């Protein structure tokens, strides 16, 4: 590119010199290079880079012109040296002054006449040498007799002048050589700079593309190469900064996405999914403190979920007296959650369950022996009652079951569907004290029983009575059903009713009915309901997934009795006593109900709640809203969300003692304002997340 083309390309005004333009355009060149780096698209970046190459070519032409002008200034200084500019050869009076030195010349001295001196002739050999020396140096040989002192002096001056010219020529040589070498050096340097510039541009563009594609390691290598070409390069520094910024942005995006996914899964209870998402973050960014904390919460929740699941399985096995399954569950818990305190708790429950089963079996054998001694081969209500209790205590003892079947056969027995098709048909022809036996299977019910009968199924998981939730309870017992005994049946409602008043699964209205080994499930209302002064006794029964309470007694004179029952997963309370009803609840379990394990809201004076396990309910394990008299003792309230045991002022007459209240998510024992804390000192309070004892509490109206 010519100088004129370069000046036109760069738009340099006529009055500005090349040297001035080079200095001014250096910053413009950096701005253009920045445009190449920051181009939003590859096509635009290529266009900017082509312009930058043209810019650099024009700038190189300017630099060359500036260098030429600098050399011209130097030449003006060199003009002071003869021949330095014109190139004319200045001849020395002594040619060959750089040749090897010649042998010394013998010069005759002028002889001064003296009276005592005589002229000594020059030897022939010396004369020849003198002639040879003279010829070799281009000077005439002067006889010594003709030598003039002035001539000798002149020759000495010529010698002195020849030495000065030597140094002048040497200086001239160095200046010209230095100027030429300098010009060549600057030319090579300019070429090297252009090559470095081109390489830097190429690397800069490559680095930008690698950064844009998040290929951080490759981009880092590119900027390291740029620093090798140009140490402390600004472009390399900016590139490295862009890598760090990109990595931070990538980390923020990656961590934000996967930690958010982990948090969402954690809150939704999908713990395995939550843990997997958290591990994705920590695998790439192991120092992230927030995700470490989140993972800790997930691991703790998984631990608690495993703990809760296995604890539930173990307790269910204990309730079924499946000791092998219960012990296997404890072993798995010890393996998955080592050193958890629940391991020893469950082990104690298994040991206590085994001991109770042994005691129950011994008692069943005693009852069976008494029945054998009294059996006279005819119906005897006392013998039949003993054998019913014996079967309930030891349902798996074949010998006891055989004796029961024999004494039960003394009464009239109606088989469904062997003799009649339905339960309704059997009841139509039944008399008081008749025995109705239902085979395994599901039967439509929705019937009313108003006479004392014995209703027996093949087992609570084998024989099912059901009715639609909007039609009627599965069974309704009237006042005339007093003395009725129900064993081995499951009651279930189909469909669901959302009305304010809903049918229970089974209802006892004024009569006295005993249930043994039965299940009450999926009712829209209460599982088993006692009203109108009735009495329902339940032993070893299950109340599960009912729309209101599992087992409820309502109204003055109504009473519930529950022995070794389980009430769990109900939409309201496990057990509820209210509006004047009374209750006796012993050795039962109320767990994981939506509201309270047991709610007492009645002024009846014969309350007895003793030896129950109340755990995992969403409100309180036991809530005493009211009570005229009675006892709440030796119950265990654990892991309930709002608190363990709440006593309102209206229940101040109820004795509350010897209860274990621990590990609840709220406070342990909550006492309303006006109750004395020292009255409740016999209760054991420990390890509750809220206060162990929260007394002097004021409740607002409606709470």
From TrEMBL:
It comes from the Bacteria. The chain crosses the membrane at residues 166-186. Keywords: Membrane, Repeat, Transmembrane, Transmembrane helix. It comes from Haloferula luteola. This is Tetratricopeptide (TPR) repeat protein. Residues 94-127 are annotated as: Disordered. Residues 502-630 form the Right handed beta helix domain. InterPro entries: Beta_helix, PbH1, Pectin_lyas_fold, Pectin_lyase_fold/virulence, SCF-Subunits/Alg-Epimerases, TPR-like_helical_dom_sf.
């Amino acid at each position: 590119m010519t100088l004129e083309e370069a000046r036109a390309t760069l738009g340099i005004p006529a009055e500005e010199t090349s040297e001035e333009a080079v200095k001014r355009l250096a910053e413009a060149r950096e701005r253009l290079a920045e445009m190449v780096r920051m181009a939003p698209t590859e096509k635009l970046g290529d266009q900017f880079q082509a312009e930058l190459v043209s810019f650099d070519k024009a700038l190189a032409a300017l630099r060359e012109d500036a260098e030429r002008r600098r050399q011209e200034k130097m030449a003006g200084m060199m003009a002071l040296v003869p021949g330095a500019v014109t190139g004319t050869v200045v001849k020395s009076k002594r040619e060959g002054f750089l040749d090897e030195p010649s042998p010394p010349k013998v010069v005759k001295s002028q002889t001064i006449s003296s009276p005592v001196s005589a002229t000594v002739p020059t030897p022939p050999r010396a004369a020849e040498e003198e002639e040879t020396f003279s010829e070799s140096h281009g000077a005439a040989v002067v006889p010594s007799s003709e030598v003039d002192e002035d001539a000798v002096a002149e020759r000495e001056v010529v010698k002195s002048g020849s030495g000065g010219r030597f140094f002048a020529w040497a200086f001239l040589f160095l200046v010209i050589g230095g100027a030429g070498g300098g010009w060549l050096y600057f030319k090579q340097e300019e070429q090297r700079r252009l090559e470095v510039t081109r390489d830097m541009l190429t690397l800069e563009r490559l680095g930008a593309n690698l950064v844009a594609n998040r290929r951080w390691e490759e981009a880092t290598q590119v900027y390291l190469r740029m620093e090798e070409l140009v140490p402390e390069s600004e472009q390399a520094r900016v590139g490295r900064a862009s890598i760090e910024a990109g990595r931070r942005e990538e980390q923020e995006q990656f961590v934000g996405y996967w930690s958010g996914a982990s948090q969402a899964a954690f809150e939704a209870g999908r713990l395995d999914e939550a843990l997997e998402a958290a591990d994705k973050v920590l695998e790439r960014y192991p120092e992230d403190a927030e995700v470490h904390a989140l993972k800790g919460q997930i691991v703790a929740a998984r631990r608690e979920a495993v703990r809760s699941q296995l604890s539930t399985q173990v307790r269910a096995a204990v309730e079924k007296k499946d000791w092998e399954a219960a012990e296997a569950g404890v072993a798995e818990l010890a393996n998955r959650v080592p050193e958890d305190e629940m391991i020893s708790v469950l082990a104690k429950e298994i040991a206590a369950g085994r001991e109770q089963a042994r005691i129950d079996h011994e008692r069943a054998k005693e009852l069976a022996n008494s029945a054998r001694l009294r059996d006279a081969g005819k119906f005897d209500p006392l013998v039949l009652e003993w054998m019913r209790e014996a079967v309930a205590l030891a349902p798996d003892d074949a010998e006891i079951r055989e004796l029961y079947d024999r004494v039960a056969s003394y009464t009239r027995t109606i088989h469904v569907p062997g003799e009649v098709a339905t339960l309704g048909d059997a009841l139509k022809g039944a008399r008081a004290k008749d025995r109705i036996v239902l085979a395994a299977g599901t039967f439509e019910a929705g019937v009313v029983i108003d006479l004392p009968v014995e209703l027996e199924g093949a087992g609570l998981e084998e024989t099912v009575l059901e009715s639609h939730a909007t039609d009627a309870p599965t069974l309704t017992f009237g006042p005339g059903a007093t003395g009725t005994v129900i064993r081995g049946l499951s009651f279930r409602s189909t469909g669901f009713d959302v009305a304010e008043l809903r049918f229970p699964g089974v209802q006892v209205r004024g009569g006295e009915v005993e249930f043994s080994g039965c299940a009450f499930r999926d009712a829209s209302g209460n599982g088993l309901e006692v009203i109108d002064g009735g009495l329902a006794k339940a032993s070893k029964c299950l109340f599960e997934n009912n729309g209101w309470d599992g087992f409820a007694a309502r109204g003055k004179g109504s009473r519930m009795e529950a022995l070794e029952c389980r009430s769990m997963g109900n939409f309201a309370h496990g057990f509820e006593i209210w509006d004047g009803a009374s209750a006796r609840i012993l050795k039962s379990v109320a767990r994981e109900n939506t509201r309270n394990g047991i709610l007492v809201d009645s002024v009846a004076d014969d309350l007895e709640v003793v030896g129950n396990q109340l755990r995992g309910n969403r409100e309180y394990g036991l809530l005493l809203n009211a009570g005229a008299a009675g006892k709440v003792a030796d119950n265990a309230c654990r892991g309930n969300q709002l608190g363990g045991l709440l006593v309102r002022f209206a229940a101040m007459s109820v004795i509350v003692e010897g209860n274990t209240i621990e590990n609840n998510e709220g406070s342990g024992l909550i006492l309303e304002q006006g109750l004395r804390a020292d009255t409740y000192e016999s209760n054991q309070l420990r390890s509750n997340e809220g206060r162990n004892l929260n007394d002097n509490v004021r409740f607002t109206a409606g709470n």
